[in-house]
Hints:
By secondary structure, the chain is α/β, with parallel strands linked by helices. The chain has three helices and four strands.
Amino acid sequence: MRKVLFLCVANLARSQMAEGLARQRFGERMLVQSAGSRPSRVNPYAIAVLAELGIDISAQQSKPTSAIDPGTVDTVVTLCAEEVCPLFLGRHQRLHWPIADPASDDPSLSREQLLARFRTARDAIAAHLAQLEVPS
C-alpha cells in the first residue's frame, strides 16, 4: 500500500482537498494524510467545492507536520506554489505539485470568485492524482 502525505503551509485548502480527493479515488489502496507547517483550520470553500463532487471533508482537521509519524509515509507531495513549502524530513519519495493557494483575505473577492479559485485548485489536484501510480 502506498502511504502519501500531502503538505502545504496552513493545511487548510490544497492539502486538505488532496487528502479528500485521494481517499475517494484510491480508497484502501492508499494511506492518505495531510499536514502543514502552520496549521489553521479547514477552509469552508475547500469543503464546499469537494461537496460538489460528493466528497465530504468536513470532519478533517488541520494538523502540524509534527503530528505525522514518519513511518506512515513513503511519499511526500508538496502543493505550494509561491510560498515556501513545509519540510518533512526522512527518506521518502518527494513530489512537488505547484498549485496556487486559492485562499485569500482579499475583501474585494466575491463568494463566486473564491469558489472559482478553489475549483481551479481542486481540478489541478485531481489531474495530478490521475497521473499518480498506485498498486492495485
